[in-house]
TrEMBL record:
Lineage: Bacteria, Pseudomonadati, Pseudomonadota, Alphaproteobacteria, Rhodobacterales
Species annotation: Yoonia phaeophyticola
Protein's name in the database: Cytosine deaminase
Pfam families: Amidohydro_3 (PF07969)
Superkingdom of origin organism: Bacteria
Secretion signal, residue range per the UniProt entry: none
Length: 420
């Protein structure tokens, strides 16, 4: 599979394995061929190469990340691995988030994602306490610089209590100015319904989609997802609404959780599950083995027609100490954590086609005429794909193999050496 020696002109990759769902077909895996010409998927023709059953996937879409937090772990440790430990230490580290600091770390993460085969990213951006004025312009610049390689969206990250602050409307206006998504973290507060209704009204006036961090806790009494669905139904809000985490559903009584999902389906909310971060943070208590995985009810959601995506979430920060913006790692981990195996064979769509649709990114099908943005792995079946990290994968963008060299962590050292 040495694509450095690909002949010029059209080429046909013969004997490749492709998930049937990606081809718009029923079933599991399909052994077929795929043509490439002028950087696009084409009818078979030109030079033929036998790929020995190698699996071909469309480039990934990572719809819930935190590029502005990425890689701060060397200077912002989580003292106990808990959610509160993460929150307090990220807030303390905001003092270091100059424009150059955010730019350096975010660009590092984008380069990792690109090398691993991601073509589109939505990042949440910490925006309270004036941080929006520093981070949003930088990420907008990166969006422009990476155009044609990575499609980048930004979503504001504020707490639901932040709605009462004077800067809320300035943040919302900045989101609109930069063509972003209006985001919020929802958790149980007495005035939450009033906040949500006001938030939806603001989004409606500005023509913005919404993105929520929702019920990121194993406390079964946390039901802000249910309230979001009720508010969307009450107001008739019809722009896209993406909700992430939804961990408390897994700790609730089945009847209550499923009734909430019926409301979510009726309100046409989309869901993104973040299995790696949730496994890391949720149900963590000192000297006690965790009982819960933290993953939300993805099977029950999918059965109700709710669009379910999976994403990276945090990377090397106090909320998740690991990760590399590698959506193939997310696929492997999600399959194990949420038992996607021995289930519907089309879960692969939750890592590419579904998040593209949910976020409004360009379609990434393998239809003739689509960009030849592909990931090619030597694995010939799901077991081989998930048994190894696929470090030797080939990433094609517009039909050309990219340089997959990952940036060195040493590039980030100056940021931490300068920290007081």
């Amino acid at each position: 599979m040495d694509f450095k020696t690909l002949p010029d002109g059209p080429v046909t990759l013969r004997n490749v394995t492709i998930p049937a769902a990606v081809l718009g077909q029923d079933g599991d895996l399909v052994r077929t061929e795929i043509g490439i010409a002028d950087g696009k998927i084409a009818a078979a023709g030109g030079a033929a190469i036998d790929m020995g059953g190698a699996m071909v996937l469309p480039a990934f879409v990572d719809c819930h990340t935190h590029l502005d937090k990425g890689h701060i772990l060397p200077r912002a440790q989580n003292p106990d691995g808990t959610f509160i430990g993460a929150l307090s230490n990220v807030r303390a580290d905001h003092a270091n988030w100059t424009s150059e600091d955010v730019r350096t770390r975010a660009d590092f993460s984008i380069r990792c994602a690109y090398a691993h085969g991601t073509r589109a990213i939505r990042t949440h951006v910490d925006s309270m306490n004036g941080q929006y004025a520093r981070s949003w312009p930088v990420l907008a610049e990166l969006r422009d610089e990476w155009a044609g390689k990575i499609d980048l969206q930004m979503a504001s990250l504020i707490s639901c209590e932040g709605y009462a602050l004077a800067e809320y409307h300035d943040i919302a206006e900045a989101v609109a100015q930069y063509g972003g998504v209006l985001g919020m973290v929802s958790y149980p507060i007495p005035e939450l319904k009033e906040v949500l209704l006001g938030h939806l009204e603001t989004a409606g006036k500005l023509g913005l989609a919404l993105d929520f961090h929702t019920d990121e806790t194993m406390d079964p009494s946390s039901e802000t997802l249910r309230l979001i669905a009720e508010c969307v139904l009450e107001t008739g809000f019809d722009a896209p609404v993406l909700v992430g985490h939804c961990c408390s559903l897994s700790a609730q009584d089945d009847a209550r959780a499923l009734d909430t999902l019926d409301l979510v389906a009726k309100a046409k909310l989309d869901v993104v599950s973040l299995p790696m971060c949730n496994l890391y943070l949720q149900d963590r208590q000192a000297a006690r083995t965790p009982r819960g995985r933290g993953v939300t009810l993805v099977h029950e959601m999918k059965a109700r027609g709710i669009k379910v995506s999976f994403a990276s979430d945090n990377t090397r920060d106090p909320f998740y100490a690991y990760g590399d913006m590698d959506m193939l790692e997310v696929m492997r981990m999600a399959t194990r954590i949420a038992h996607l195996d021995h289930s519907d064979p089309d879960w692969v769509q939750s890592f590419a086609a579904t998040p593209a649709t949910v976020c409004g990114f360009a379609d990434n099908s393998l239809a003739i005429g689509a960009a030849a943005d592909l990931i090619i792995c030597s694995a010939r079946n799901w077991n081989e794909l998930y048994a190894r990290p696929q470090s030797d994968r080939i990433v094609l963008r517009n039909g050309v193999a990219i340089d997959r060299t990952l940036p060195s962590y040493t590039e980030l050292d100056p940021l931490f050496e300068a920290t007081p």
